[in-house]
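Let us walk through a complete example step by step. Step one is to write down the protein sequence. Step two is to encode the small molecule, NAP, as a SMILES string so that its atoms and bonds are unambiguous. Step three, shown after the inputs, is the structure prediction itself.
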Amino acid sequence: MSQREIWMESLDLSQPRAAQTLYDLARSYRSEVSLFINNAGFGRYGDFVDMPMGSIHNMLQLHINTIVESIRLFLPDMLARQHGDIITVASVAGFFPIPYMTEYAATKAFLIAFSEGLARETQDQGVTIQVCCPGFTDTDFHQTARHQPKHVFFAQSPQLVVQTSLQALKSKRTLVTIGWQGRLALWISKIIPHRILMTIAGKAVRQPRTPHLKE
Ligand SMILES: NC(=O)c1ccc[n+]([C@@H]2O[C@H](COP(=O)([O-])OP(=O)(O)OC[C@H]3O[C@@H](n4cnc5c(N)ncnc54)[C@H](OP(=O)(O)O)[C@@H]3O)[C@@H](O)[C@H]2O)c1
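Step three: the predicted structure of the complex.
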């Protein structure tokens, strides 16, 4: 059995300049990075006006700034070698606006649009840009978000998400959903007006108000 070395570093990716630190660290271990995955993220549920400003800043920095800056740093080397894959984990929450998780859904929508645009810009240059959009997945995400789901239909395993995403790299697909639930969510978001979907989704995720949520 071949042995692979794994190095681990701990880094707060919601800090400014985290992308440059991450890039420098990665390059200190390997001169070439062939697979780069943006997975870190967190959710917050509730009324936007109750969200602590620090939490909003952290989410915007983590889900948008650090990811965009990291890809800007890692992508040129991949393009120069005409080889490499970049996976960004978004969510089905990015398929349409969702009240009471407004900023989370908006950051994931940004990641979908950003990845799709970038994939088109870089097509046929040997690099795959993928945006992976899981649905409800059985991880610590919901506990971290302090969210008690009212209806949990068909929670997916993180293993299935990873397998599907890595498998999809072979076909160089950009937008990747997980299982039939993901395909259904994408299809629904295209055929049902968003005002109707927002009403349903908002009712499903709304929590009792807790003004001035702690960070
Ligand atoms: N679970 C779902 O239902 C679901 C559905 C759709 C999309 N997603 C997306 O899937 C991705 C992974 O989430 P998950 O479900 O695996 O949740 P999770 O179990 O809570 O894992 C989140 C990961 O992100 C890391 N992270 C959070 N903030 C960070 C920061 N400031 N700096 C560095 N790392 C940070 C966490 O590190 P620590 O453990 O060190 O805090 C953890 O490894 C996220 O982008 C999420 O939005 C999840």
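Step four is interpretation. The helical segments are 18-29, 53-81, 102-121, 141-144, 158-171, 179-191, 194-205.
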